[in-house]
Structures are given as C-alpha cells and as structure tokens.
Amino acid sequence: MATFSENQVTQCYVVNSVVDAANLVKADTKIGAATVKGIKNDPGIYVNFKNALGDVNRTDIVDVRNILWTKASSAKKLRRPLKAVQIVINTDVWPDATAALTADNVLVGQDFLMRVTIDNYIGMSDEDKYFKYGVVHASLGMTKAKFYATLALSFAKNMAREAGKLFTVYLAKTAGTLTGATVVTAKDKLDDLVAAAGVAVIIEEVQQDWVLGVYREANVRYSVASDIVKISETNESNWGTVKDLTPVNFVDDGHQMADWEYFFHGSRGDQYRNVGWPYVINTKYMVDPDGVYDVIDIHYFYAEGGEGPQKSEKDLNILCPATKSIDGTSGAVTYTHTVANAVIGALNAVINTAGSTVVIDTIAD
User: Fold this and answer.
1) pLDDT digits 0-9 by tens, 83-119
2) Binning pLDDT at 50, 70 and 90, where does residue 266 land?
3) Cis omega (within 30 of 0) on the bond before 81?
4) Is the C or the N end of the chain the one with fewer CB within 10 Å?
5) DSSP-based helix, strand, coil % in the chain, nearest 5
C-alpha cells in the first residue's frame, strides 16, 4: 500500500506571469504572478505565487531526484474538435447526378431513412441511446438537390423539439467540406434549400452547456447510418455513404481548465465547496473560462525514509494563459505561449541548478 504524505497528491495552480522574488511581494503585483525557486544546497524546488486573494503562497516542494516525467501541452492540442459527419447517396443507387426521377425508376415511392444514434444521452450507460431520423420519400421528378434539401430539413425539424441543441445541420456546396455550406434550420423553406443546390448533408455536433462544478462540457457521441432500399427488381443496397470529416471547429480548453482548478481545490482544503450554501466560505478562482490555457505537468513521487519507502506519485499542474489569434482574412487560428515558455525556462533553470538533467520542452504550437 502506498504511503501518502500530508502534501497534495494533485496540485493545480494558475500562473499568469513570471516575476522575480522582490516584485512578487509588492502590493501592485497582479494575481497569478509567480517565482520559481530552488533551495540552497538541496534538491528541492517550488513555486511561489500570488493567489486570487493577493496572498503569496507556495506549492509543495518537489525533490528533483524524484521527477518521473514532465510534459508541456499547448492550448491548441488541448482543444476538442467538434465531430462532423457527411452522408451522400451512393452512385449505384442514384447514378446520374443531374437527372430527376422518372416514373420507371424503382426509387420512386421508396423512403430513404437516415438514422442518427446518440450514445449516453441523458444517462451515462452504454445502454442509454437516443435515435433521431431524417426521412425522404422519393417522388416523381425529384432531383438530387431536392433529395438532400428534404433530408436536411427533415432532420432539422426532427431535432427542433429537443430541449437542447445537439447538432448543426448543413447542406454542403462541395462534398467533404463545410466551406460555403448552408446551415439548415426547421424554419427554412424547402424551395430555398433546393436552390442552394446541396451535394451532401453534413451533421456537426454543437458545443454543449457548461456550468462550473455542475455540468461538465461533454461531447456529443453519435453515429450516422443509412437504410436499405431497393435499387432494381432483384437487388437491394444501403443507399448512403457516411464519412467522418476532418474537424474545422473546436472547443477551447478554458472550461476544462476552470473545472480542473475547481475540483483540485479539494486537495487544498476546499473539500465541500458550495455544500451548505449560503453558509459557505466563498472561494475565488483564477482561471478565465473564456480563455485558453497551456498546461505544464511535473509527475514525481514522494517517499519516506526508513519504514515507509513506498513511492506515492503526485502531479504538479501549472496552468498558463495562452493567446489565441484569428486571421481576419484567412480565418487561420494561431496560439502563442509566452507565459508557459517563461515558466518552463524558469523551471529548467532551477531543476538544473538542483542537480537534475530533467528538461521540460518548450511549447512551439
């Protein structure tokens, strides 16, 4: 059985800037300022920081000889992609891209069903599944543009009754991309959507509601499938091809980092948080949920001497605000990591001085 010290197993701190020791204690130094320090003639290092109340605290002391691994994760890599799925009608079902259905076409009168299976809906069990549909009744004179418009509108109307929005529905102008796609809502008119000349239907998950400490920002787990239709007097086929697209929209990590800070405060004595409200001690937090954050991890262990040599592994997580920029012309998104790299530089210096060869890699992207 591992022996745990009275120190924190998981530490989570927000560092907004790196300053020297003299400036850290000044009254006008902003919260989140930090100084990385070593102990003279000792392998221990720690971080002094100004907390949300303006008081100067420190992390636990980390013995550099006990560091197992380190990692620096960029805000770009910590963001979560929004899943997008495309469905198109197979060419063996409807070969001609421009021709309308004629009276002798076997497709006329058949129903084309698109099934969207939502996993873990409401409940968290794998058995909790929810099914939503888009349906097209193939009619005489229907074109592919009308087929896709009808399918998208059907699914949008089917989803409109839900209490929360789960998906954005698109008519793709070009297959395989959201560029130039038309957003479809339940209030759209079919003729307007037909005029958009869609060549595929794309379904993209929507960022879900989040409340600090109450609602975790979960992803929408779903899959899309088509049904079987008759394509000749003797053959049947699955009418659609489903393809996961390369994500173009993302959810940044601000909400996740706010949750980290909130829950890991339990390791710092804030075990009950708002239980018993309003008779509680209000905790001030430092993460901006609308921001983006890089994360520096130092994974190390604590071990007593003598009779308690077992290793109890611990983590020191340092959250550093990054900067997100969007190019006004191309829409390209870039992240800069000034604060995190400054912290990494300071940590590497004191780790080296303390006699360790451990190096934390700086963040490039």
Assistant:
1) 999 999 999 899 877 789 998 899 999 999 999 999 9
2) confident
3) no
4) N
5) 20, 35, 50
